[in-house]
Amino acid sequence: MGDLNKVVVHYLTGKLLKGTTQDFFPNRPVFHMQPADGSPAVEVRARDLKAVFFVRDFEGNGARKDLRGFVSAPAETSQGKKIAVKFKDGELLCGYSLSYSPERIGFFMFPADPGSNNTRVFVVKTGAQEVKAGPAADALAQRVIDQSRAA
């Protein structure tokens, strides 16, 4: 078995499930999760998900305002190239990815916001409305931010 990871699973339906997993692998269609509330372990199917958020803790900091966009970050870091994801539910995630490929079921990304409760996120392609890498990631992030300000 692998390391015990704290995760928050976001389903396409909007449902959230917090717990731990030891058998998540990006190339497998199913993994198992032990819910944080102590209920029995559940089988999670990747095709039903928006994303899997690997978190520092389950509570986070409700008073903290997450940084949106890249905030003058470099185009490439040791965590990969810039990537921006606009999910079908309207959420915007900005970060870096070493493994983005449009042909895969999903990819890992590391948040651009260093204070994020997320250590990494596995984005499931079916949950994303739009994914842009490199310079196009900045443009997508700015467009989504501008649209949310105008609303």
Question: Describe it for me?
Answer:
It is a single chain. With 151 residues, the protein is mostly beta strands. It has one domain (1-58, 67-151). Helices cover 11% and strands 43% of the residues. The protein contains one helix and eleven strands, in the order βββββββββββα. Strands 1, 2, 3, 4, 5, 6, 7, 8, 9, 10 and 11 form an eleven-stranded antiparallel β-sheet that branches. It is globular, with a radius of gyration of 15 Å.
Biggest sheet descriptor: 11 strands, antiparallel
Mean pLDDT: 88
What is the rounded distance between the termini?
Answer: 47 Å
β content, as a range? 35-45%
Low-pLDDT ranges: none
What gyration radius follows from the Cα positions, in whole Å? 15 Å
Domain unit count: 1
* Shape estimate: globular
The DSSP helix count reads 1
**How many distinct beta strands?**
11
Helix content: 10-25%
Class from helix and strand fractions: mainly beta
How are helices and strands ordered from N to C? EEEEEEEEEEEH
What characteristics describe this protein?
single chain; about 150 residues; mainly beta; eleven-stranded antiparallel β-sheet; 11 strands; about 10% helix
Short description:
The protein is mainly beta.
Write the SSE topology.
Layout: E1 5-11, E2 16-21, E3 30-35, E4 42-45, E5 49-55, E6 76-77, E7 80-87, E8 92-97, E9 106-111, E10 118-124, E11 128-133, H1 135-150
